[in-house]
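Sequence design from tokenized structure. All designs in this work follow the same two-part layout: the structure record, then the generated sequence. An example of the structure record is given first.
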């Protein structure tokens, strides 16, 4: 059984942020008070990041990220970004737009004070009502917790890849990517490379909510349901869970009774579907969903009837600056919903955090500098279902790199991984599916 409605699922609900609305947005924002509009006109602006990888703090484009992934907002309106790659840190962006490092900064597995803590490819984020920030620490196969004072601890997992229920360090995960938390403090996890959805009680006890012993596509209850590389997760207002089932190019729902159903799915032969390889997911209070798809650099809307709708002026082929000089997405990952109906989205290919605001249909596009060395979008986005030991022009739909990728002393877990079929998995990878 699932818990109650979410108060802050990291990707589902946000409350306050001092962001100036885009010009011409007033009428669109007003319409959200009457309910979420379908297929609204959008304009993308850059909140943080200058298009180059790095680790600098500061305001706006003075900030640099190495591998921005999950994004969440707290009750005060502060933004948080999970920054993997060479940074392995959690970044905070305050109401004035200034970025600082909240915790971490080196690769490892350590608890304690913010500067002593270490992560290994942090991914999804979620915040509870008390201000605790939960981190899917993908490379460490653990769910970490950052208290309001910045102290980092481990909620569940022992640092090793596995598939075991239990309490705290007695439980094991295999490359968890998504997290959400409900009003009772129950944390839900997409255990990505076990193809399962897990539940963590406030005391750290881990149980399996849904998913069988293999990857697949099947609805049903408990182990009857099958997923294929689930990533993003969000809690709806009614307490249902919504899953970005990446490998199946589908959006799945887990009802409060634990039954899994399919909300929407791409047809197998439709390579241009808005539902292709969804990663980030967010839920509105009136039944709409938003998904970030790295396969085509898109952010799409799912209506309560299960129809995939493109946001106007966002559904464009990604190209430097866009034909009109406006900002374009390349590899959207994490997605968070603002109270006015606008969105915050991380883009792993351009090392940026964007705001997608509602505007009127005749609003002029906002010019922006093209990201330096922007990846070609003609390349097939492969992560997270292609082997990490293969050379790719663009490796991953969440952690792209230009040129061939032949591995490093350590693994970039957002940059490609095992699909459960390759036999010569790169040494040290936790992503060899265990069954």
């Amino acid at each position: 059984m699932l818990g109650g409605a979410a108060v802050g699922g990291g990707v589902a609900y946000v409350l306050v942020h001092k962001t100036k609305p885009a010009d011409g947005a007033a009428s669109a924002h007003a319409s959200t008070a009457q309910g979420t509009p379908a297929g609204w006109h959008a304009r993308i602006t850059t909140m943080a990041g200058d298009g180059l990888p790095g680790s600098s703090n500061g305001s706006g484009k003075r900030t640099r990220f190495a591998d921005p992934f999950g994004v969440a907002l707290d009750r005060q309106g502060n933004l948080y970004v999970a920054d993997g790659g060479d940074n392995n840190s959690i970044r905070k962006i305050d109401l004035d737009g200034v970025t600082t490092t909240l915790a971490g900064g080196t690769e490892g597995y350590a608890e304690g004070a913010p500067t002593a803590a270490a992560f290994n490819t942090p991914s999804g984020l979620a915040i509870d009502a008390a201000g605790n920030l939960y981190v899917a620490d993908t490379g460490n196969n653990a769910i970490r917790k950052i208290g309001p004072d910045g102290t980092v601890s481990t909620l569940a997992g022992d640092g090793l890849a596995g598939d075991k229920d239990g309490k705290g360090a007695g439980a094991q995960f295999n490359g968890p990517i998504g997290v959400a938390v409900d009003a009772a403090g129950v944390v839900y996890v997409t255990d990505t490379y076990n193809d399962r959805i897990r539940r963590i009680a406030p005391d750290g006890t881990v149980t399996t909510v849904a998913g069988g012993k293999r990857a697949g596509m099947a609805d049903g209850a408990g182990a009857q349901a099958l997923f294929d590389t689930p990533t993003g997760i969000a809690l709806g207002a009614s307490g249902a869970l919504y899953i970005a089932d990446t490998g199946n190019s589908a959006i799945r729902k887990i009802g409060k009774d634990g039954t899994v159903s399919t909300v929407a799915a791409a047809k197998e032969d439709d390579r241009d579907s808005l539902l292709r390889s969804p990663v980030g997911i967010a839920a509105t209070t009136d039944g709409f969903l938003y998904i970030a798809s790295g396969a085509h650099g898109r952010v799409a809307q799912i209506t309560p009837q299960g129809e995939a709708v493109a946001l106007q002026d966002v559904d464009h082929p990604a190209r430097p600056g866009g034909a009109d000089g406006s900002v374009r997405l390349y590899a959207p990952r994490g997605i968070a919903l603002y109270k006015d109906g606008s969105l915050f989205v991380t883009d792993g290919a351009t090392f940026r955090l964007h705001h997608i605001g509602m505007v009127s249909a005749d609003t002029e596009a906002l010019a922006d500098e093209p990201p330096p060395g922007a990846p070609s979008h003609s390349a097939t986005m492969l992560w997270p279902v292609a082997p990490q030991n293969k050379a790719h022009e663009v490796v991953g739909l969440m952690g792209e790199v230009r040129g061939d990728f032949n591995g490093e002393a350590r693994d970039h877990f957002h940059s490609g991984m095992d699909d459960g079929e390759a036999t010569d998995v790169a040494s040290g990878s936790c992503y060899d599916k265990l069954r």
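The chain has one domain: 41-358. We note this feature because it recurs in several other targets discussed in the main text.
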